[in-house]
Amino acid sequence: xxxxxxxxxxxxxxxxxxxxxxxxxxxxxxxxxxxxxxxxxxxxxxxxxxxxxxxxxxxxxxxxxxxxxxxxxxxxxxxxxxxxxxxxxxxxxxxxxxxxxxxxxxxxxxxxxxxxxxxxxxxxxxxxxxxxxxxxxxxxxxxxxxxxxxxxxxxxxxxxxxxxxxxxxxxxxxxxxxxxxxxxxxxxxxxxxxxxxxxxxxxxxxxxxxxxxxxxxxxxxxxxxxxxxxxxxxxxxxxxxxxxxxxxxxxxxxxxxxxxxxxxxxxxxxxxxxxxxxxxxxxxxxxxxxxxxxxxxxxxxxxxxxxxxxxxxxxxxxxxxxxxxxxxxxxxxxxxxxxxxxxxxxxxxxxxxxxxxxxxxxxxxxxxxxxxxxxxxxxxxxxxxxxxxxxxxxxxxxxxxxxxxxxxxxxxxxxxxxxxxxxxxxxxxxxxxxxxxxxxxxxxxxxxxxxxxxxxxxxxxxxxxxxxxxxxxxxxxxxxxxxxxxxxxxxxxxxxxxxxxxxx
Length: 504
Ligand code: UN1
Hints:
Elements: H1 2-7, E1 13-15, E2 17-18, E3 22-23, E4 28-32, E5 39-44, H2 48-65, H3 70-86, H4 88-99, H5 103-123, E6 131-133, E7 139-147, E8 150-154, H6 162-174, E9 178-181, H7 187-204, E10 211-214, H8 218-227, E11 231-237, H9 240-252, E12 256-260, E13 265-269, H10 275-287, E14 297-303, H11 304-319, H12 339-354, E15 358-361, E16 365-366, E17 373-374, E18 377-380, H13 386-389, E19 396-402, H14 405-413, E20 417-418, E21 420-424, H15 428-435, E22 444-447, E23 459-460, E24 463-464, E25 471-472, E26 481-489
Parallel strand pairs: 1-5, 8-9, 8-11, 9-10, 11-12, 13-14, 13-21, 14-19, 18-19, 21-22
Antiparallel strand pairs: 2-3, 2-10, 4-5, 6-7, 7-26, 15-18, 16-17, 20-24, 23-25
Helix pairs in contact: 3-5, 3-6, 3-7, 4-5, 4-7, 5-6, 8-9
The structure holds 2-aminohexanedioic acid.
2-aminohexanedioic acid (UN1) binds next to loops.
């Protein structure tokens, strides 16, 4: 553990702000590992005045950064990717130590960071604008994409480094500086990443404040980000109530936001599907990251004819789940992030019972090594009970039966969130219906693979109360840039659009 902290530049006490230099004199918090409660290191939060210094330097860095040619900015992101490759094992282990996901998932998370850097390097030469035919003679109509400004990135504990990288790699090539406010539950990984970015920026001779950091509470530091017009775009990952708050504040000042809020992932298991594929996809989707992904599988909607057999096989898998220290390769499930998360799960189980659900397995506290361990839970429910509508950020999986595919799609869509969904079927008509305009209403709709584990190449995000934002690949970069449309007249005379004449 000490070797990992040392390799990533984490000291016993760490300032939580980076404004081109490290600052922090606010409240000190001791970060403990959910694996066994052992102390990792302390972080000193920034005060509101220090936050202002962070934002001022980040905003100041924009003036020069936006003038660097995009492919040159891409070279910086390429070096960032290389540095992440070098630090992959250490960073993954720190993710595991700090928030408890298994090491193999930690490695996957860092791989996502490397992948988005590679994507962004290519993107740095592909920030394409369009030219359109003008309706006027000897005119040209075009659009260009320009850097936007400071991107405030507010991240959650569950993907403590990948979500920063999706935003940062893209924002950097787009010419935007980044101000990161990580979850207070995962500040050490944020310090480690910022140190990596600092080194890369310094090596190139760029202002390291391009990748700034401000650790502090959402209610003070978060709101300073939300309300300050110097932050052009706020990219927020978190709960639905949190997103409603952020979105409202940012909208009041006509800032931009990308909201990545709650999910309620469902998998439809058709009798036309491969049951082994269904089991593996659902199992990983539900217990992976101990059910703490926004893309986690929370609901299984299974065809009546195979309901009982499917459930039995899933229960067998659940009961064999190796739970324990997430650094040990044999364990598939580590702890929840903190004791409060355990309490939330236990409360959801009681509510499920009270609302008529049946707990079929799991949902118990495991007294392992002083950590926040639970057994993963399956509940049989008749449909989307009120508790099923809620995103309980823990390993509780609701299984419900369906008759026709139309009923299954109605169940899948019958929640307020709209992030991720999947169908397991070998019937092309079923798959196409699920993907059609009258199919899944989610931002992610998969066929024969689970709800989580999205690749960075696609745009990531969802509809309804998930917030509508898109991050990561495809053309999500456009949210990080300012679009400018130009009409250019080379005719030597004035011609008005829409056929309007001007007699002088
Ligand atoms: C999240 O849970 O906030 O699709 C992000 C996935 C990951 C990202 C999840 N690539 O599960």
